[in-house]
Amino acid sequence: xxxxxxxxxxxxxxxxxxxxxxxxxxxxxxxxxxxxxxxxxxxxxxxxxxxxxxxxxxxxxxxxxxxxxxxxxxxxxxx
Length: 79
Known about the structure:
single chain, 79 residues, alpha+beta, 4-stranded antiparallel β-sheet, 4 strands, globular
């Protein structure tokens, strides 16, 4: 299975990324959810969300869902 980033939805430091995947069964898409944070002066990505991040995570996931429901909506696909 291979994956290629197709589209990102950033809401503050929370990001939902749509991945285009190919397997022996054909093509399918998945979504990953990450949060950027700074530790020891260096930016990192994690998958743990505090209370203040939950609304942003929901918004990013809703944007990804809407995109996947209608990828021809006129949004430019970022590769």
